[in-house]
Amino acid sequence: MPPTEAWANDRSLCRMYALFAAAGTLVMGTLAVTFVVRNADAGPIGVMRNFLRDATHNLASCFIYADLALIWAALGAYMIIEARRWRIRHVWAYIVGAPALALIVSFSVFMYVRQRRIAATRTPTPQPTPAPAAPATKEPQR
């Protein structure tokens, strides 16, 4: 595969991850702001208490909440392994960012950074041209 074709694939993946991160930020941010505005009279602690109560109010919400928590744990393990493999720094920020922002946002940003790292290792770096060898000189004979 020519290098330009490989970068085109990487660019497409990076765009897809960036799109998911942007869409996730927009959708989840809107939902979070709406929830906070509706529960603003409860204060900051009350907002968190109301959120946890609503998230575990019935079996359906418990199922979804538990599923997301387990997916978060599995993706956290995956991100740690991939971060070590590709030498991505501050992987903890992506894992902690999942409940703070949204899993779709933090995981998409991690995958974007990972794909950029993969693309960087795949693109050939220009090698310096070696200096021409000095011509061999013969020592004068005595």
Structural features, described:
With 142 residues, this protein is mainly α. Helices cover 75% and strands 0% of the residues. It is built from 5 helices and no strands. α3 runs antiparallel to α4 and α3 runs parallel beside α5. The chain is elongated. The mean pLDDT is 89.
Compile the SSE list and pairings.
Blueprint: H1 3-38, H2 43-55, H3 59-86, H4 91-100, H5 103-122
In short:
The chain is mainly α and 142 residues long. The protein contains five helices and no strands. The mean pLDDT is 89.
Report Rg: 25 Å
Helical proportion?
A: over 70%
Strand content: under 5%
Structural category is: mainly alpha
| Count of strand segments | 0
Count of runs of 4 or more consecutive helical residues: 5
Mean pLDDT: 89
* Main sheet: strands, sense, barrel: none
Low-confidence stretches are none
Ends: how far apart?
60 Å
Shape: elongated
What order do the SSEs take from the amino end to the carboxyl end, as H and E? HHHHH
